Hints:
Elements: H1 18-21, H2 30-33, E1 40-44, E2 47-50, E3 55-58, H3 61-64, H4 73-85, H5 97-109, E4 114-120, H6 123-140, E5 148-152, H7 161-166, H8 170-173, E6 183-186, H9 220-232, E7 237-242, H10 258-268, E8 272-277, H11 290-293, E9 300-303, E10 315-320, H12 321-326, H13 347-362, H14 365-387, E11 390-396, E12 399-404, H15 420-430, E13 433-434, E14 436-437, E15 441-444, H16 452-472
Parallel strand pairs: 3-13, 5-6, 5-7, 7-8, 8-9
Antiparallel strand pairs: 1-2, 2-3, 4-10, 9-10, 11-12, 12-15, 14-15
Helix pairs in contact: 4-13, 5-13, 9-10, 14-16, 15-16
Bound molecules: pyridoxal-5'-phosphate.
Amino acid sequence: MPSHSFPDLITEAQTTEESFLRHIFVRDQMYEWTKQPLIMAKADGVFYWDVAGKRYFDALSGIYVASVGHNNRRVIDAVRTQLDTLHFSPPMHGTNPVAVQLANLLAEVAPGDLSTVKFQCGGSEVTEAAIKLARQYHKLTGNPAKYKIISRYQSWHGSTMGSLAASGLKSRKTVNEPLPPGFVKVFPPTCYRCPFGKTYVPHPQPLSHEGRGEHGCNITCASLVNDVIDMEDPATVAAVMVEPIGHTGGIIDPPEEYLPMLRELCDRHNVLLIFDEIITGIGRTGRMFAAETFGVVPDVICTGKGMSGGFVPVSAMICRQPIADAFWGPISENPGFVEGHTFEGNPISCAAGIAVLREILERDLCANARTQGARLKAGFQKLADKYGVIGDIRGKGLFLGMEFVKNPRTKEQFPQTVAFGTQVGKQALANGLLCRFDPHWLAFGPALVVTAEQIDEMLSILDRSMGEVLAKV
Ligand SMILES: Cc1ncc(COP(=O)(O)O)c(C=O)c1O
């Protein structure tokens, strides 16, 4: 073969063949996945089509990414225009106008005084950046011993070594251990199965800190974070990092007091509160950020996934003004924020980010997420009543999930061998509905542009799939 010749590309149809698939690692277990590979060829609105032409309702926005729908014209036009203007600027020497514009836009739409942005390409990169920001901030402000990060079991903050060390999923961690030191875990607020055996009773009025003693569970999951900081020594703790609503574990939606309590105790111990809003940010829970949904201003928000609608990779770490100010000073005293990647603030990514925010704000897609989310939740409740195997429905806006149980009264789970959730998820996929599935739960996150008719279509495929699986188990 002459050195200048280009090898023949395999055809689209061939991309489902095992011999060709052996050249790629995907996220799934390769050996099993290759038996029935899912290869998407095109998409439009809330639908995908695979290479064989089968249509799928995308009830997951890919993976909470295609926030403004596939094939969104406004984002495509913005990316095309930017491609013709500037596709890359030198990151070691500066940035570009689009990155500065998007940073200022994010400062406008973020809650409180969250106003200074570090752009990256993916979620792991910005959660990792937030960890570094917390450590560097405390060094710059006279607390160099503060380095520990407190996060939660069942959480997912990313695949890089630091973000993985903060994550709490044994299935993804054990194979990569040993992980970096300095990460401490607490139990998450899984009220349906409280790790402390308590029962949450919603309080009729907002609680004062003292009033919590009379409460059903005393929000032990939050007060224990305080005890853990105490036991670790507050002088060594840099930050608490949580997803406002956890994903893995089946949509962990905290009681309303939980995040305000974390805010209070972080303030008490001079510990930064980091919200990982990689999924929940950019409209997903019915407000621009879940921080607003819960009425809490964290010190740092990390967001990604839906930020560019999936057209190009982009993510952002946004910090409060006083934190950014600590990195502002003469070079002799202050090295600035020591963190960076080659593709940060890429102009194409930032152009997509601006177009997505314009789409969300001008079409009021946060309101649509609240309306359609309520419709979806009501539909899940009807399925719970019809089939009697949905124990709990959780989430906010268009970030919703359900936990399956064999017996809703006792909360007894289906045996692992049945893996009911996985069966329903696979049946739904066979019936043309894409959602996130696990042996015991399903999660859903359709595009923020989804319509009422489309929600009903989703529910009807799910209804059929549950019925078909129940007829077999
Ligand atoms: C809550 C959360 N944080 C961080 C990440 C990591 O993001 P990425 O996969 O883009 O690196 C994810 C990815 O699923 C996530 O769900």
